Write the structure tokens for this entry.
Amino acid sequence: PLRVRVRLINKETGEVKEQEVFMGDFPLMTDKGTFIINGAERVIVSQLVRSPGVYFSQELDQAGNKLFNATIIPNRGAWLEFETDANSVIYVRVDRTRKLLVTVFLRSLGYGTDARIPELFDGDDRIRNTLERDNTKSEEEGLVEIYKRLRPGEPPTVESARALLENLFFDPKRYDLASVGRYKLNTKLKIDIPRDVKNITREDIVATVRYLLSLMAGEGKVDDIDHLGNRRLRSVGELLQNQFRIGLSRMERVVRERMSIQDVDVITPQALINIRPVVASLKEFFGSSQLSQFMDQTNPLAELTHKRRLSALGPGGLSRERAGFEVRDVHYSHYGRMCPIETPEGPNIGLISSLSTYARVNEYGFIETPYRRADKERGVVTEEIVYLTAHEEDEFVIAQANEPLDEEGHFVNERVTVRDAERIVEVPREEVDYMDVSPKQLVSVATALIPFLEHDDANRALMGSNMQRQAVPLLRTEAPLVGTGMEAKIARDSGVVVVAREAGTAVRVTADEIIIRTDAGNLQRYRLLKFQRSNQGTCINQRPIIKKGQRVEKGDIIADGPSTDKGELALGRNVLVAFMPWEGYNYEDAILISEKLVKDDIFTSIHIEEYESEARDTKLGPEEITRDIPNVGEDVLKDLDDRGIIRIGAEVRPGDILVGKVTPKGETELTAEERLLRAIFGEKAREVRDTSLRVPHGEGGIVVDVKVFSRENGDELSPGVNQLVRVYIAQKRKISEGDKMAGRHGNKGVIARILPEEDMPFLPDGTPVEIILNPLGVPSRMNIGQVLETHLGWAARTLGLCVATPIFDGAREGEIREFLKRAGKPEDGKTILYDGRTGIPFDNPVTVGYIYMLKLAHLVDDKIHARSTGPYSLVTQQPLGGKAQFGGQRFGEMEVWALEAYGAAHTLQELLTVKSDDVVGRVKTYEAIVKGENVPEPGVPESFKVLVKELQSLALDVRVLSEEEEEIEIKEDEDDITATARELGIDIAGSMEEKRKRDNDKGDGGEGDGEDTSGGEE
């Protein structure tokens, strides 16, 4: 809650009233950097926008003359644009209006006379040139001229013109450069105006014109918009502040109105202030802004990268449609600030990126990256760390992090490869100013987890980075054999592990809490999260990794979270892989796995789904959550408790009732006997229908938790809801055909077959391999990192080690050969394999080794879907589409052509009528199938009737005639069908209720995984 002390001063009597006013509830950030809005964790993504300041650009006209432009962009307020034409005349535009001569504008700012203006610019010819075209002669005339341009059609006076100009540029409420804008103007134009002057001044405008003149003379340089020195980050605080300002300005309007209406004597601050606009603007920002996103909680890495994400989209930013290639491209100034690899595929490519590992944001919102200073006098690289912004860096010559140094810190080589602005050149070692701090500096967190990144093609590395974020936390975690050394740091920073706050000794260690006696003698209790549902339905579970009586230091990790193993990030499992084709089962990137991975639960994960049912007030009376449901047998109710809610621990299948609920039906006229019954037995004889919450198709599992909220207990519920029940159902999902798996190098595939362990190819020592990948997936994709990982992983497993090979600084080929030799493996990493079915060796040696494989969130159980009958669309009466609506498969335009080409007339007719929108026909067909009769002739499809009606609504007299020229009446006997349908137990109306519920669930999805899903023909 936010409270503000408000003082109201009556100017006439001098009376002062003070009051504390409640200004609404303000969401606070959790210690993990998220916000909890409506019970769901959300992340506010930082936004990359063009920095306020002055920008110069040039273009060529038809004749090939260079034309220069200058734009002054404020944080908020009117833009000011200067431009030149082929005759070297300078114009100015105020806020995208018509152009004015610059001299007219200067006059109106108080440089009135023809003599003053050239003095400002050392008598420059181009200014004289512009003056000759200028008809105004004094400040007043200049003001009037501007007013005519900005407010055409209003009578111009000097006073109103001066007020307009003051308002546009010099009023702090309307115009604000922000401190960053002032800083950019001062550095670019080399002027000295104090930091706290946030408006534009006359000096700024004169200096801008001066710079424009020097550009025309060929001095100075134009700006690059995509340079990171010209783009800044707006983080949570600033985005919120802007939102809050909008709310306050709306509130101000209300206060002014109320002041003028109400009586002066009785007025109080409380009565004047209406907090609605402020609360609404905050709510809108957190609830529906593009930058407030549902947190991606699939695994710890997803959580961490989501918080480090930078977006160029959103209010005040770009839109996908208008963003060209330049904005999306990798720019040399991204080095060490924004990752060149990690960005989504699809329409957002390059607009959404990730902060690099060592980058930080300075007070102005520019991204800085650290460098080690080189001492030129002594010729050594010091340990002193300096953070530079993109513009500062352009002035210096910077060496790579892995440039060899000797013990004292001198460069070993005479000539050193360096970056100098956008060029990469070799210079003598004396000229180096700075050196990178680490090779990881260049990339983001997710990319820094890919071993041998230097051997992968960038496109595949991008997929590797993005797919690690989709790895599902497994039941049994295992740290990678071949890592990059970043795993422990990431696990700790993501906040999923429990870290000891102070040193001490563990006195109690159980599954759900750890108690530590600190050295000061206090007891500290750490509660562990057990089987909580994450935003994405994966399972959050913490387990202790210390023992009772063990000594812990401050900052030690005492409990693992999801996807961590002894405090290290562990997204997948190390599995024994062979690269070879096998009977075509790994054609086109498919994957062949051993049944061992299923039996030993190597890739098993837990998923928790949440279902909710609410009892609302309806027009006919309140809905009721109860065990007493009409027309339902006792066997269905066996797992419900006396409230009508499923018991915890029950196993449920599709169609089972989770929460029994009845809704009152429309009252019918009662007979005397019924009224008597009603009088004797009370409400029970009322007509109700069953609207229970049931398990949807294809779901099910074990009920692990039930939460009940009700009005009576004082829980906050949305209007019209009396009771809300949430049921949590957990599933254990083993890996199965159709699941998507991937390595860390963008090598993804779908499981095509699960072979018995004994049929898998085996090594000479009898070990069967666990996964077979297609060797053709390597050469054309150019992600050789996976092959090096295979070799090194084999050696590491044999020697019982874990290896860290940091990116751009990892194991060399020679070292891997050496390692394999030490492990007693062949140096080329290949071995003869034997066919598990026959025992005959394969013709050629095969590359075998250990790869770290991930199971991704695209699980077949969530995608598989089938429908017989189900809901239909209201107008066209065609089946709905998509799994969420329990829809059918679309038989589109192109599919129709295919059947037409084969002349499959009957198949086609039945697809377009009884299987789709022939309302009568589909019920009759169902009836015929159930009763075992012949299927009747199809009737008229509903969409044909809709078409006829559409044409009639255009006043065209459309009739349907038979061959004998007689008109055919198209009408259906609705009641008849519904009766038949009810007999057969088909739900014709369609379960719209269920669809609505599912839509609400889906509504909170965050960003997709970047794969384009906008399929379909039309």
Summary: The chain has a mean pLDDT of 89. The two ends are 50 Å apart (CA to CA).
